Amino acid sequence: MPQHPTLEREFTMRFTSTPRGARLARRLVSHRLDDWGHPYTTPVNETLTLITAELTANAVRHGHVPGRDFHVQLTLADGTFRIEVTDTRTEKQPPASPPATDSLSESGRGLLLVAALADDWGVSPRPAAPGKTVWAELHAQAKGHPLTHRVAPQPTDVDLLLATSSLLRDDLGSRPGDASCGGRRR
């Protein structure tokens, strides 16, 4: 009989299937990781926050069904973090392995990032309802960077990460209601 991992921590929440919902999910996952002893600037927090940003953005863009939310679950069991993002759209499945994208394309790199950062990832059908769950796992080590067992990224991977790092920031100055702030963060 297979052993089930011992659940140490869990965070679960539903979010509106909007860019704002995806942003809130990303921030709450980062905050929860900080509460669990993985501060904001640690590799575990930054990596899982980026993975969450990609998965929730995909749920909003490709899994959106009007009037339906998406669901996020973050668990820690036996030293492995697992992030699951469930949406209600069955017919739009991510590819088994992310295809290479055109270097001039402004999108299409999310699953490449997830595959590069996560120790494992995949898609499973949503139990008892239409939809799917896209998940990713990251093995946390007691000390050091969680990705120390990996080969250093190729320059193109670094460029890709830098190009998409804007997902982790909010451009407050670009919103019309923030004009009085002069584009500065408070």
Please outline the helices and strands.
Elements: E1 7-15, H1 19-35, H2 43-62, E2 70-77, E3 80-87, H3 110-117, E4 120-125, E5 132-139, H4 155-164
Antiparallel strand pairs: 1-2, 2-3, 3-5, 4-5
Helix pairs in contact: 1-2, 2-3
Give your account of this protein's structure.
This protein is of the alpha+beta class and 186 residues long. 30% of the residues lie in helices and 21% in strands. The chain is built from 4 helices and 5 strands, in the order βααββαββα. A hairpin with a 6-residue loop joins strand 4 and strand 5 (132-139).
- Describe the main β-sheet briefly: 5 strands, antiparallel
Radius of gyration, whole Å = 17 Å
Low-confidence stretches: 142-155, 169-186
| Number of DSSP-assigned strands | 5
Distance between the termini: 54 Å
- Percent helix range: 25-40%
Structural class: alpha+beta
